[in-house]
Write a structure and sequence with these properties.
By secondary structure, this protein is mostly helical. The protein has one domain. The protein is built from 17 helices and no strands.
Length: about 450
């Protein structure tokens, strides 16, 4: 065979899939909507249900359930799978002899993902979009591709530790702020003039309270009920803040760390479902035992102080450790599900959702744009937190039905097909040809 391997053959080989990864990707995609739906349908209520959407009864139980099991962990697993996907993509190219073209295709693929992320955030109206951040971290993760698994894990632990220190500094700043506010009360009660520092603390608190006022909430909701271009303009500053703040303040510790763990677990063949059941049982048992204990501690801090700013800030100190252990518990449980000889039809449907992960992720935003903004039904701010779950379940069912049907007739989801064409600069076959029988 000719030693010159064409890009067409490499692309054809990429169609080889690992079922466990597709199932995990499908489950994680469904799980991440459980958290994102709060941003789609409510104002500033992702982590604080007292702002809007209800914080008692079913709404409180919904918040507790999602924060114990899904907050941060779904994003962690999404990051983990992205790291695996990019490593597999590059590794296959290199093994097929693509040489320097492998890097060319890889970075072109990442660059287009960055463009997709900007389009997703600004034009599909999702301020919590993650593709832009994944693209930026994807440029960094390239340098770690040849690192041994144990060093990948060690690097991730270092990143978690730095992130923890950063969150601790945030807590001490918040604690100092609260102390300054108490001093403001003393000064004002005694008729003393506030110092420059105390004036700043008071002004920042008033701005914080203003954003949570009924008037501000109603004004925001009214903006979300307007037409498409008005909502684009309304959310543009929020998207800009996310794209400029998150990459350096959170993503290196939050996203890159999990990408490295994903590559390590893949190299150890944990994510391919090849390890014994005992290992996955241990992952689930240890991961959930430690992770849920940490999450329970964090929730108690918040609930006992009625969602105060200081309690939320303090609970974040252990955030990275709780999410990573629960995420490992999820990995163990998902792998056990993949290995179990049951519910084959469900695995197949979930895997189809995973194969079309990019399309289905973008579809979340399109559907929610129609449901919640003035583009469609204008239900932003109209549903309670627990009622948002009905929207989630409806989207799950729709995608679990649509995805396998789509893949029966097409090789890829529309977004995956477009991304592939842009990456290789070549038009790939889209529709499956009918099998001819004699």
């Amino acid at each position: 065979m000719n030693q010159t391997i064409t890009i067409e053959l490499i692309a054809q080989k990429e169609s080889e899939r690992i079922l466990s990864l597709d199932v995990m990707r499908g489950i994680v995609l469904c799980g991440i909507l459980l958290m994102n739906i709060n941003g789609f349908g409510l104002y500033n209520s992702y982590s604080d249900p007292t702002v809007e959407g209800g914080s008692t009864g079913l709404n409180l139980y919904t918040w507790i359930m999602t924060n114990m099991l899904f907050e941060g962990t779904m994003r962690a697993l999404f990051s983990l799978l992205f790291g695996v996907g990019m490593f597999m993509f590059l590794d296959r190219l290199l093994k097929k002899g693509a040489g320097i073209k492998a890097a060319d295709i890889y970075f072109r693929r990442i660059t287009w993902l960055l463009v997709f992320g900007l389009i997703h955030g600004y034009l599909l109206l999702w301020t919590g979009e993650i593709l832009y951040q994944y693209a930026l971290m994807g440029f960094l993760v390239y340098s770690f591709r040849s690192m041994a698994p144990k060093f990948l894990i060690a690097t991730a632990i270092v990143l978690f530790s730095i992130g923890t220190m950063w969150l601790y500094v945030n807590y001490t700043d918040t604690k100092k702020w609260m102390a300054d506010l108490e001093e403001v009360k003393v000064f004002e009660s005694e008729g003393k003039e506030l110092t420059k520092e105390l004036k700043s603390a008071k002004a920042n608190w008033e701005a914080y309270e203003e954003k949570r006022s009924p008037e501000a909430i109603q004004e925001y909701n009214d903006e979300m009920h307007k037409g498409y271009f008005s909502v684009v303009a309304h959310l543009a500053p929020e998207n800009f803040d996310t794209d400029t703040l998150w990459p350096y303040k959170y993503d290196v510790w939050d996203v890159l760390s999990m990408m490295l763990i994903g590559m390590a677990l893949f190299k150890w063949r944990v994510l391919t479902g090849e390890k014994p059941i005992s290992l996955y049982l241990a992952m689930a048992g240890i991961g959930y035992s430690i992770g849920l204990l940490i999450n329970y501690y964090e929730l108690n801090l918040i609930l006992e102080d009625n969602f105060s700013l200081i309690s939320q800030s303090k609970s974040m100190i252990t955030y990275f450790w709780g999410r990573v252990f629960v995420a490992m518990g999820h990995v163990g449980l998902i792998m056990l599900f993949c290995k179990a000889p049951i519910l084959g039809w469900l695995k197949s449907s979930i895997a189809a959702v995973g194969k079309m992960a990019l399309t289905n992720y973008l579809m979340h935003s399109v559907i929610c744009m129609i449901i919640f903004t003035g583009v469609g039904f204008g239900l932003f701010g109209e549903l309670e937190r627990y009622e948002l779950l009905y929207v989630v379940f409806g989207i799950w069912i729709f995608q679990l039905i649509l995805s396998p049907i789509w893949l029966r007739y097409f090789h890829y989801g529309p977004a995956e097909w477009l991304w592939r064409n842009l990456s290789y600069r070549k038009i790939h076959g889209f529709r499956k040809m009918p099998v001819q029988t004699l």
